[in-house]
Amino acid sequence: MYVYLTKVLGEGSYWKGGYVAKSTGGGQKINLLKDELSKGTYRPDQLVLFVDRVQHNSLYPEVKPGEKRYLNSGGFIGSVANLIKIVNHTHIKDDDDDQLYYTNIFLDPKLRNIDSGTLL
Questions:
Q1: Cα atoms in the Cβ-side hemisphere of radius 13 Å centred on 60
Q2: Distance between CA atoms of 92 and 94, rounded to whole angstroms?
Q3: For 60-119, what is each residue's pLDDT tens digit?
Q4: N or C end of the chain, less CB within 10 A?
Q5: In this protein, which residues make up the domain named PLOD1-3-like GT (predicted)?
């Protein structure tokens, strides 16, 4: 039997992460995730599914079946241990670009396991 727990990060907080639908921003999402994971209430092997509500589908060409064209900072899954490493990799301001933050990690061969397609 599986137990799924959901948590809305930043609920009731003032958004300082920019207007991500029109420009860069979103660093606050990383900082909210970092704060949540740093509480020590999760097992290192526990899986986290992170999703946000911003829709960017209309900004990019259609991805055909089987293609993996775009890295998406708005939806990913990983172990708590790996996500802690990722969100603590370097400092990010709340209004910095979260997509660029994750892309830079992905493009660094030292931080990415190319064979398995995983980060860190």
A1: 12
A2: 7
A3: 678 788 877 677 788 889 999 999 999 999 999 999 999 999 999 888 887 776 555 555
A4: N
A5: 2-52, 58-113
Quick one: which of 49, 47, 116 has its CA closest to 76? Answer: 49
Quickly tell me which residue has 């639908």 as its tokens.
21
Q: What DSSP element (H or E) covers 45?
A: none
Helix (H) or strand (E) holding 51: strand 47-51
105 membership: H or E segment, kind and range: helix 98-107
Q: What one-letter code names the amino acid at 84? A: I
How many beta carbons lie within 10 A of that of residue 78, not counting itself? 17
Does the model's pTM come out above 0.70? yes
97 close to 20: Cβ distance less than 8 angstroms: no
Average pLDDT, the chain: 85
Note the pLDDT of residue 55: 62
pLDDT at 43 over 90: yes
